Amino acid sequence: LRAARTAGIGLTLLPVLYQTAGFGGTPPADGQRRFIRSTDNMLYLLERLKPLCDAQGARLGLAPHSLRAVPPDALREALVGLSALDATAPVHIHIAEQTGEVDACLAWSGQRPVRWLLDHAPVDRRWCLVHATHMDAQEYAGLAASGAVAGLCPSTEANLGDGVFDAAGFRGRWGIGSD
To answer: Is the pLDDT of residue 159 over 90?
Structure first.
């Protein structure tokens, strides 16, 4: 926030909520522990950051890392807390980035990741679904209907060989970013 103010640039601050290493609450690996934050602690952080962001015209939102890293109850609680601070706050989540993630989500929930998210969270125009690479036709249609943005990261997807978003067939909003 100080750097953005000093440089005179706008800022959207999206603290990342990360709690588990996999679907179903798989405990984090040693290398992930430094990223772990409880939902209560994240909400406390957002409450402390909100007046600082407001004072300089910065936006504050939340980035629940992914469905594998944030269990359903924690996601729900974090979204409720965020909406209490600002009902228009942006939400970014990594989703359907790799086929292994899709397979793991199917094994855990019986649904593909984007379908699960659309069915269990208030996805709307304030959301950005980062990557959204491996979706079926129903998920593409649901994402477009929600008004959320598909946040494409071509350098990440190319470097990791994750796949290619069907931009030609998508009838919704999308943007380009880096991961």
So the answer is: no
Of 44 and 169, the structure prediction assigns the larger pLDDT to: 44
Give which of 98, 147, 89 is closest to 118, Cα–Cα: 147
* 161 has pLDDT over 80: no
How many angstroms separate the most distant Cα atoms in the chain? 48
* pLDDT tens figures, 118-153: 999 999 999 999 999 999 999 999 999 999 999 999
- Beta strand extents in the chain (DSSP E only): 12-13, 16-17, 59-60, 63-64, 91-95, 127-131, 149-152, 173-176
Instruction: Pick the closest to residue 135 from 161, 177, 164, 178 (CA basis).
Output: 164
From first CA to last CA, the distance across the chain in angstroms is: 20
- Please give the positions annotated as active site: 131, 179
Conformational region of residue 157, where left means phi above 0, alpha means psi within -120 to 50, and beta covers everything else: alpha
pTM of whole model > 0.85? Answer: yes
Token code pair at residue 98: 């790799």
